[in-house]
Amino acid sequence: MSTFFMFDTFRSSSKLINTFIGHTDWVRSIDYSTFGDCQFICSGSHDNTVRVWDVDNNKQIRSFNGHSRHVNCVKFSSYYYHNHHQNVTCSSSWDKTIRFWDFKHNKQLQIFDGYAYGVNGIEFSPFNGGRYLCSGSYDYKIYLWDVETSKSLH
Q1: Which CATH code is given to the segment(s) 27-152?
Q2: What is the pTM of this model?
Q3: HEC per residue, the chain
Q4: What is the structure's pLDDT at 133?
């Protein structure tokens, strides 16, 4: 069985569905996820904010201002949703931190720090339900975190 993408069909039927407006500087990263029956987009920007958008209702539902520098990457956490019934997005920043945000209850949950420089990319593990978070920093290092214990493993 093979899968292929029909570009001509996509090109002729594609259209702009919506534009989400709210950031005041470059949008650096976005992620998409579904939690239950709801669709969400999260975004991180050079305006130092993380924002969460409700796709079904076409509106911003949260804005988090905890970072003191540019937000480089955002990702939704399936681990928190499946293990703790929480809607959580994660962000990395030039401020040398990774932060976890519960956007249903509008609060910050965790901070991973200890970096010498800003944190660029983050990615949750595709195994163990996303329990592990890998991050890359401007200090030329890759870190592996256990989300459950908040400990750096390597």
Answers
A1: 2.130.10.10
A2: 0.87
A3: CCCCCCHHHHHHHCCCCCCCCCCCCCEEEEEEEEECCEEEEEEEECCCCEEEEECCCCEEEEEECCCCCCEEEEEECHHHHHHHCCCEEEEEECCCCEEEEECCCCEEEEEECCCCCCEEEEEECCCHHHCEEEEEECCCCEEEEECCCCEECC
A4: 96
